[in-house]
Amino acid sequence: GYGRSDGDKQTIRSYPGAFIQEIIDCISPTTHKVYCLIGSSQGAAAVFNALVEKPAISSFLAVQNPVSHDPQRFVCIKQPALLMYDTDDDGHPVSVGRLVKKYIPNNHYYEFASSKQPKWLEHNAHLKLLQLFNEYDANNNTTNALSLQLTASSKISLPSLPACVSVAGGIISYLSSYNREPLYRNSKEELESILSAYENQSVQNDDLFVEKIEPKRIEDDESKAQRLATELAQTQCDLCNQHISGNDMSKSLRLPDCRHLLCYSCCCETIKLNSYECPVVGCAMKLNVPSSQLSLYSLPFSSDNEKHIIIQFGNSCKSISSSSQRYEYTAYVECKTTNVIDSVSFDINPGYPKSAIRVSKAPYELVRIMNLEFTCHFIIQWNKALNWPKLRITYHVQNKQDSFTRNLLVRIPNQDNTMAKSHKTREEVVYNWTDRDRTKPNINYVVLSYD
């Protein structure tokens, strides 16, 4: 979800019918349909759009806090629908939900306020879904519901549940997902063992995600001596792969836990600004570098010819439900130097123009309650007198830890601290933190300029 799958991330938006049909064909090769399509936010938009394109792929639909643009199109959706809207969620306006209710006549429609009932979905969604099934599905094959013009009070007959591949398909998917999924804890061997045993016994979903705590390895004296000898002989930086001369070795840094060696230049370009985790690709070891050590490194750019601003961004995350994965996220932007920010817009639907939520004074924060991590671009508008282009930071909200923070050095070429009025300033400069966080190149800065 939210871009963690391989392939083109726009496919689900551009071709929802074909994309979902392909999945259905894999899990239900006999009937080529499913009993119910369920979606949340952008996933709900995909469900709506898929049913508009291919009305026969599902007997029911259920959505929570859906993105539902141009709901007039939904008049062709005849399936019974469960519609659930949070009146406190400005990103998914309840006013649009009431239009959806109007255009999809066979519906069970619910509104709730998460500020007053933060666990409404956890306590009610599954029951409301069963009520929907119970009301409309008489398990009578004499009538095909998809061919009828239905009313909200109709008692209709729907096909019985299609024979779909169940838990085994999920395991196979996880075997090829590597570390993209936040719930992926078991080793490949353990999952393969579960898969081989599945033919002979029933497996509960909870059994798939039991986290095993590995015992901490104790290094014996001989192993420690061998490791130290190898480290003393190392003369190559683990990040840039450049040779470290004898004179420069004293300025390099051996990270204490993962034991990666960084040359002086890499320390200046990476941990000087972001000393949170090891910058080497494939290593997520958390760092605890003393401030006295960090003070030995300087930013790799001179401030004589340019102005430097440090922007801190990230999010906090706390679980609000012990029974399901539901989190309260607070995404934020802060200027760690003299504040020159006029406003910050938080864009959680980058594909839709003018949908960003603007915050015009500090603290620049956006609070959202979501089930999963989600895209959130930060669009920073500077003080108007500076005439600087806007800065967009592409970001993906994290829930792997309680607080996720990163720093970005913004470099502005000296021109009396403003972009000359005679020049046409670029409208927006983009810093792709999402890509940077996956590949970890040595780029912790962005330059604001004309071109």
UniProtKB/TrEMBL annotation:
Which InterPro entries does this entry report, sorted A to Z?
AB_hydrolase_fold, Znf_RING
Q: Which Gene3D superfamilies match?
A: alpha/beta hydrolase (3.40.50.1820)
* Record GO terms (molecular function): zinc ion binding
> Cross-referenced PROSITE patterns, in alphabetical order?
ZF_RING_2 (PS50089)
Q: Where is the RING-type domain?
A: 237-280
Q: Which UniProt keywords apply?
A: Metal-binding, Zinc, Zinc-finger
Q: Where would one find coiled-coil regions in this protein?
A: none
> Its domain of life?
Eukaryota
Q: Which residues cross the membrane?
A: none
**Protein name as it appears in the record:** RING-type domain-containing protein
